[in-house]
Amino acid sequence: MTRILSWILSLLAFVLFVRLWAGPASYPDIGRLEQKIEQQNAANDQQAEIKRKLQMDVVGLSKDDDAVEEHARSELGMVREGETFYQVILKSDPEAATAPVPQVKVAPHVE
């Protein structure tokens, strides 16, 4: 009887040991999950920084008319009435030489 009981307990210990190293929620699986958590935290930190910068831009644009004008000039190519737009194409940039010239719209100056 004790011999059968010791075999059963040995078999049970072996099964639990195998599961500890090879089954779901095993040590290697936990290590992989911790690595995924670290990667996701790094990605979250990057996205949080992007979000913070965008929120600062939104606050700046909502409070300052000069910031809106600067954004329109740099990003949208807007010029004031009476200004002349010049586009400089450098010889070292072959893509710019073949790129179509953007259409520039003149916005009326409102004071």
TrEMBL record:
Range of residues in the leader sequence: none
GO biological process: FtsZ-dependent cytokinesis
InterPro entries noted in UniProt: Cell_div_FtsB (IPR023081), FtsL/DivIC (IPR007060)
Pfam families linked to this entry: DivIC (PF04977)
GO cellular component, one term: cell division site
Keywords on record: Cell cycle, Cell division, Cell inner membrane, Cell membrane, Membrane, Transmembrane, Transmembrane helix
Entry coiled-coil feature ranges: none
Cytoplasmic side stretches: 1-4
Membrane topology according to the record: Single-pass type II membrane protein
Periplasmic compartment residues: 23-111
Localization of this protein: Cell inner membrane
Protein purpose: Essential cell division protein. May link together the upstream cell division proteins, which are predominantly cytoplasmic, with the downstream cell division proteins, which are predominantly periplasmic.
HAMAP family: FtsB
Subunit-level organization: Part of a complex composed of FtsB, FtsL and FtsQ.
Family assignment from sequence similarity: Belongs to the FtsB family.
PANTHER family assigned to the protein according to its UniProt record, in alphabetical order: CELL DIVISION PROTEIN FTSB
Identification of the protein by name: Cell division protein FtsB
Lineage of source species: Bacteria, Pseudomonadati, Pseudomonadota, Gammaproteobacteria, Thiotrichales
